[in-house]
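Troubleshooting entry. Yesterday's outputs looked truncated, so today I'm pasting the complete records for two proteins to confirm everything comes through intact. If either block looks cut off, that's the bug. Protein one:
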Amino acid sequence: MEDVPQPASDPYQLGDDVQVYVSETDPDSDHHEKEGTITDVLQDTLGDETGRELDSYSYRIETDSEEIDVWFRHRDLVPVSQ
C-alpha cells in the first residue's frame, strides 16, 4: 500500500513550501501535486464546528510566480519535504 502524505500537525505559515494533495474527484483536482509557497492565511470558525482546530485554516499558494486563485483547506496541503 502506498504511503499517503499527511498535512502538517501545525498551521502553515507565510513562506512555507507545500504541495497540493487532493483526490481526483475534488473540484480543484487540476492543482493536485502542484508545489508552491504559502502567500496568504485565512482563519475561520470551521474548526469550532468540527472539533478539529486545523479545519479553521485555509491558504493561498503561489507556484511559478503565479498565485493560484483557490483557497486550500489545511487538509489539502502537505509539506514539500514529505
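Protein two, checking that the full record survives here as well:
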Amino acid sequence: MSLPRPLHALTTAVVVVTAVLGPARLASAAPAQDLPSADQLKAALLTADDVGPGYTEAPASTESPGPSDNPTPVTGCDALSALVTMHTGQSSPATPHAETELDGPDDGNPMVTEALTAEDPGKLTTDLNTVTDAFKTCHTITFTAGDTDTVTFTVTPVTLGDRQDAPAVRLDGTLAGVQLNAFIGVERFGTVGMAFGYFQRQGADSQTASMQYRTAVAKVERTLGTTAGSTTPPTATPTQGLSV
C-alpha cells in the first residue's frame, strides 16, 4: 500500500503500541493452549463493513517485520522511543497475533489500525503497564519519515471509550503544512491485548475516533466472550469455537 506522504510519519506512531504488545519476545516458548488462536483474533478484528462506507482493507503483508524494516528515527520521548525499537520479532504460536489496516475513502484518509495479541496474563499485565507509563510520561515525540521529513507531535492523554482507565493518547502535529492527528489506545480483554489507532490528516475528529474505538471494543467483547478491562480469559477458546 502507498500511503499519502504526510501520513508516513504519523502511522509510525502505532508501532509504539504494537511493538510492546507484539509477539516476538515469547517466540521460543511452548504454545499456550488456553489462549485464543490467531484465527479467532482475526475474526475479532474490525472489517471495512464495521467502520463505514468507503473503507477498504489494506493487503496483508507477507513479510515478518525486522529491525531494518522500521528504521524511522524517533526522538523526544525515551519511553516511547524504547518501545519503537522493540519492534524486531516475528509471530509465534505462543503469542497468537492478528492485525488489520482499514483505509478511508479520501485516498486512505482517515485510517484505522487494530492489532490483537494473546499472551500469558502476567506478561500482558507487564506490557500494558509499560505502555501506560509511556503514555503518561511522554509530552512530545518526533518522527523522521524518509530522508528529510520530520514531524513533532504533542502527546495528550485522552479517554477514547467507556473505561476511564484504558490508556489512550492523542497526537497532533504538522508535516509540510499538513495537519496530522492520531488517537492511539490500548485495552485488555483477559489474555488479549488490543492496540487501536485512528489516523487523519487535515482534521482532528475525536468523535469519529471514539466511535471507531468503541466499535472495536464491542466486537472483541462479542467475538471472544470477554469484557474490556477484564483479567478473566476469553470464553471463546480454540476448542469451543467462536460466538459472533
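Both blocks look complete. Sanity check on protein two: Residues 1-6, 24-31, 62-71, 239-244 have pLDDT under 50 and may be disordered.
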